[in-house]
Design a protein that fits this description.
alpha+beta, seven-stranded mixed β-sheet, five-stranded antiparallel β-sheet, single chain
Length: about 800
């Protein structure tokens, strides 16, 4: 939530710096996500008066002499804008000035004359016409004739101000407003809160045709409405527009701006209905019927169900309660009569409606945390006060206050000071507790260690001594809490367990291979199954569905790692990074049965992804073999199939006969559908490996013993053969190794297919590494081993050796 400092100061006397205020808010439990200075990078820009102006002959320029008061009464400034005139008040940037875009003003030669500054536009100051009239003019911004010459432009335009972006947690809904934060600031500064003016006068006029009915009070426990008439369609005053713009709202018209102003100031979402659009001049609050439709203010049709609370007239829906109004009842220039709405809707219902329809709004964000009934009353009173103050409309005596019966009196609770101290683990003096709670607007009576507390009506979150303990320690200071062990706590050495250490070592090893770790979201979209060509009956489509997903793109728990890896590679290619090696070690989620009756299996999976000019199938295979060797294991490979991988460049990975994963090249059709430049698609080759890490971890040895080098001579030989295409590389490699125990490694280094070999033959060339633990591998011994291999391959595969 954004809060403007000058707005906050209207309700509490703040005598500390913005930095100190930020630190105080942090110390009392409010995370300040950012502090923005509206006048950032605006320096040495003042209100100037053009004392003389003449055309610079032969150019499009004008020669201006500008008076900036105490900052110099005669500055020679050239401008190309033709809307400047003698006597005009303008923003004058002097030499050394800075603009929000980072531009610095220096003396500049224009044609044959030097210009010592610049006159600037509203756009160059970063403001619009709603911030200052005329800021959108295509030329220099002309200031009001009463603008004080020499005044800093930040002060004159209201830019010498700060916006605090404060994260409001769900347990403090009373603070999601300027007034709510003002109460907290007043408490820790020991100051009084000056509430906004909520007074108004009804003029005695009534409209007997207006009627309001709440049918479903269980989800709408309080509903206030008030009829106003003689509505003027007008702009809001400048001070109101500036405040709304500073905290992220657009200025539209006075009636709508008042509702938004109350939303930010009081924290009460409001709505204004054009009475001319309400059939029967009626409002009915009820649950929607299944399939009922409403076009909301964002011009989208919403199909509702019985869980949605609908604001209706006698015939149709006119608003989605607590979320967004209907397009059919919006305020227009023809609006003459308005019915204001200020209500409390139950937060769980609003959250379900907002998430279910994928419709977010400022009102829904506040209702989801909770709105108290005191704010409902204050919001309506403040809106009517602004209506009269601004002269927007007349306030009639026709109003409704419909309640489910909740008390409008302060709740009384009793809290033992000893219990508060027990929760905190320290001794806070009773008088200090009383002082803190009084500062927080509690009524406090202390007798014999028991506090009788009158809870402010806007603090519906306060229930017992635990909540009071939280209030006390926020103000007393978390730094006063003494760290202690829990009664049954044990001292441990800490650190990683064996499994965590092994995971870390795997990650570190992959980093040595040039891979970078990524982290992706465990939720994904069901549409990715189609994009990755997963068959309709594939087990991967048996997924855990989220009941209330944030978006449709995050509606299921993933059963595959590959799609997220491909998206990460895609985003990097779009940003010009094309040589990539990524890995991710995370869970996939496999339901044991559907519908879910127990938690799904969370299977840890290692996913590798590579892309680049030096990457290919064998480079990824080399990574896997290096990973196996580093852990004292041996992987074997067999031709396999994966829907999203190239059918001729996919292999299964086996460890001790167990299939632990698959890898290969991403299909061309998937690459062609990626959001990368068309010219890059033909040259983009992506390789993916997906390894069941849990299965791999089961193969890890408890200890890996170092085997020293024997110092004996090794040897190697290359062989080339013609062999049937039906035999895959992994099978051939295994048979070569089986021919003689001195063969330690077999690597395919050439594969060639040609019609001259026949349609069923292929040429394969292998390097055979040989090593003996007891003797040198001589050339003679190597030759004998090769003869064994050749004989074995002829017998096994009918292979024909090539020279």
């Amino acid at each position: 939530m954004k809060v403007l400092l000058s707005w906050l100061k209207e309700y509490v006397d703040i005598d500390i710096t913005p930095k100190e205020l930020e630190e105080k808010l942090f110390s009392t439990g409010f995370e300040v996500e950012g502090v923005e200075y509206l006048g950032e990078n605006i320096e040495k820009i003042y209100v100037g008066e053009v004392t003389s102006i003449e055309k610079y002959e032969g150019t499009h320029l004008y020669i201006c002499h500008v008076n900036c008061g105490v900052h110099g009464e005669d500055h020679l400034i050239l401008t190309g804008a033709d809307n400047v005139f003698q006597g005009a008040k303008v923003p004058a940037c002097l030499v050394g000035a800075k603009l929000p875009n980072g531009m610095e003003i220096a003396p500049r030669k224009m044609k044959d004359m030097m210009s010592y500054g610049m006159l600037c536009s509203g756009e160059e100051l970063g403001i619009s016409k709603d911030w200052y009239p005329g800021a959108d003019v295509n030329g220099i911004m002309i200031l009001d004739k009463d603008a004080p010459v020499g005044e800093d432009i930040k002060t004159y335009l209201g830019l010498d101000d700060y916006v605090f972006d404060i994260s409001i947690t769900a347990n403090r809904p009373d603070c999601q407003s300027v007034l709510g934060i003002a109460r907290e600031v007043a408490a820790f500064l020991g100051k009084e809160v000056k509430n906004p003016d909520m007074s108004y006068t009804e003029d005695g006029t009534s409209n007997p045709d207006v009627s309001v009915e709440v049918i479903d009070k269980d989800i709408c426990p309080r509903y206030l409405s008030h009829y106003i008439y003689d509505v003027k369609y007008m702009e809001s005053p400048l001070w109101m527009k500036r405040r709304l713009i500073a905290v992220g709202h657009n200025a539209l018209n006075a009636i709508v701006d008042i509702t938004n102003y109350v939303l930010v100031e009081i924290g009460q979402p409001m709505h204004a209905f054009d009475m001319n659009t309400l059939e029967g001049s009626s409002i009915i609050v009820r649950r929607a019927e299944k399939g009922e439709e409403l076009v909301t203010l964002d011009e989208k049709k919403r199909v509702l169900d019985t869980s949605n609370l609908l604001i209706c007239d006698k015939v149709k829906g006119v608003g989605l309660a607590g979320v967004m109004g209907g397009l059919n009842s919006e305020i227009t220039e023809n609006t003459q009569e308005v019915l204001f709405e200020s209500a409390k809707f139950m937060k769980d219902n609003i959250r379900k409606t907002s998430r279910g329809l994928g419709l977010q709004s400022d009102a829904a964000a506040r209702y989801e945390k909770g709105i108290d009934e005191y704010s409902v009353e204050c919001g309506m009173a403040r809106a009517l006060n602004l209506v009269q103050t601004l002269g927007v409309a007349k306030v009639s005596s026709t109003h409704y206050d419909i309640s489910a019966g909740a008390s409008t009196e302060k709740r009384i609770i009793k809290v033992e000071t000893a219990k508060v101290n027990y929760v905190l683990g320290i001794e806070v003096p009773e008088e200090e507790m009383v002082r803190i709670l009084k500062n927080l607007a509690f009524d406090v009576e202390l007798q014999d260690g028991v506090m009788t507390l009158g809870v402010p009506r806007y603090r519906e979150d306060i229930e017992g001594y635990q909540d009071i303990a939280e209030e006390v320690i926020r103000e007393y200071g978390y730094d006063k809490v003494v760290p202690t062990f829990l009664g049954e706590a044990l001292v441990t050495n800490g650190g990683l367990n064996a499994a965590q250490s092994k995971e870390l070592s795997v990650k570190q090893f992959l980093c040595t291979q040039g891979y970078f770790e990524i982290q992706s979201i465990a939720m994904t979209a069901a549409t990715e199954f189609d994009q990755f060509l997963i068959p309709a009956d594939a087990p991967e489509r048996n997924v855990v569905q989220l009941l209330n997903p944030i978006t449709e793109n995050l509606s299921i728990m993933r059963t595959l790692m590959a799609p997220a890896m491909v998206r990460a590679i895609e985003n990097n290619i779009k940003n010009g990074h094309e040589e990539l090696r990524f890995f991710e070690l995370a869970n996939v989620y496999i339901p044991k049965a559907l519908p879910l009756t127990e938690p799904p299996i969370e299977r840890k999976t290692l996913c590798l992804g590579t892309c680049g000019s030096d990457e290919d199938f064998f480079e990824m295979k080399k990574t896997l073999e290096n990973l196996a060797a580093a852990n004292g294991l041996t992987f074997t490979y067999q031709k396999d199939e994966v829907p999203y991988l190239h059918p001729g460049r996919t292999a299964g990975v086996y460890c001790n006969g167990e299939l632990i994963g698959k890898f290969g090249q991403l299909r061309y059709e998937i690459v062609n559908n990626m959001a990368i430049a068309e010219g890059k698609k033909a040259d983009t080759r992506i390789f993916i490996a997906e390894i069941n890490y849990d299965a791999l971890a089961g193969q890890f040895k408890k200890e890996i013993k170092y085997t020293p080098e024997t110092g004996l001579a090794k040897n190697s030989r290359d062989i080339s053969m013609l062999i049937s295409r039906k035999f895959d590389c992994g099978t051939i490699v295994n048979e070569i190794k089986a021919a003689d125990p001195v063969i330690t490694e077999v690597t395919l280094f050439d594969l060639f297919e040609s019609e001259k070999f026949g349609s069923d033959k292929k040429s394969m060339a292998f390097k055979i590494q040989m090593e003996s633990p007891v003797a040198d591998v001589t050339d003679e011994m190597a030759g004998e081993v090769v003869e064994k291999v050749v004989a074995h391959l002829r017998e096994k595969f009918d292979a024909q050796m090539r020279a």
